Amino acid sequence: MPNVLEIENLNKDYGDFKLKDVSFALPQGYIMGLIGPNGAGKTTIIKLILNLLRRDGGDIKVFGVDNVNDEVTIKSRIGFVHDTPFFYESLTLNSLRATVAPFYKDWDDGLFYRLLREFDLPARKLFRKLSRGMKMKFALAVALSHHADFIILDEPTSGLDPVFRRELLARLSALIQDEKKSVLFSTHITSDLERIADYITFIHNGRIVFSAAKDEVLEKWAVVKAGNNFLNDDNRKFFKGIRKREFGFEALTSDATEARRRFAGKAVIEKASLEDIMYYMTRGGNHA
After folding, report:
1. Residue 139 near residue 121, CB atoms below 8 Å
2. Span 103-156, pLDDT tens digits
3. How far apart are CA 123 and CA 64, in angstroms?
4. Which end of the chain is less crowded, N or C, counting CB atoms within 10 A of the terminal residue's CB?
5. From CA 110, how far away is CA 39, in angstroms rounded?
6. Predicted confidence (pLDDT) per residue in 170-211, tens digit
7. What is the structure's pLDDT at 246?
8. If you ran DSSP here, which 8-state letter would residue 285 be given?
């Protein structure tokens, strides 16, 4: 499969924050989860992909072409959902459809109104009178209604009830079944990604920690729990993050196989969840 997104040595300098040599790729037909703590650089990456910010260095290709030189063509094939949807507050959903639809040659009115019905969105209601969750649903309906080949979601499930979150995840999973559509899903709700993501890219302090297949990540990373007597200098170097307690410690490792060899019969070794990895890498003391 070709890559729908290729980012190589991407840099952006804000002065007090730097995106440094970011590189990763998303194959066509898959879902990638983009994770990291607040301020890690997730939204900056998305804005750079959409050419809403000017990059200081590196390359971004979408559908195999440069995202700046071929911006109009690329954006006609992208559906974007921001964590705070921005539409004209004083217009009805019907009027917003009339405003947005002409920008997309593949706009599908039938699909749009079918999604409004599925999401229980009243077409004659003013956008400003929608709840936060309903605004997110409308933004998703717009993103899907022009048969976009690449869906980019920036914290789309934030503020949504659990029922619609499940429905959204199911819809995204169904979306990629034809192996032509792809999804980049930035979120801090890592349990959502464990359900549907094929790849995970973890960014921390503006740098990529890893970008790999989800199953590979969950197989490779582990949490070790043992007594404090095992926390010597050599073992400290082995861990990526440590949480020390009065009677023992918990620590994260990116080498589960070596952890089982080193601590066989002496420690409890558990598979790390994506939430575990984020927590220990960002809150694990000096070893993070």
Report:
1. no
2. 999 999 999 999 999 889 999 999 999 988 888 889 989 999 999 999 999 987
3. 37
4. N
5. 39
6. 888 888 787 789 999 998 888 889 989 999 999 999 999 999
7. 81
8. G
The residue ranges of DSSP E strands in 97-196, in sequence order, are: 150-154, 182-186
User: Residue holding tokens 């959409």?
Assistant: 50
What token pair was written down for 152? Answer: 């980019």
Q: Which residue has the tokens 């071929």?
A: 70
Enter the tokens of residue 192: 């959502």
Query: What amino acid occupies position 182?
Result: S
Distance CA 235, CA 257 (A): 15
Burial of 177 (0-12, 13-18, 19+ CB in 10 A): exposed
In whole angstroms, give the CA distance from residue 30 to residue 154: 17
Question: What pLDDT, on the 0 to 100 scale, is given for residue 286?
Answer: 45
Cβ(80)–Cβ(43) below 8 Å: no
Report d(CA 94, CA 92) in Å as an integer: 5
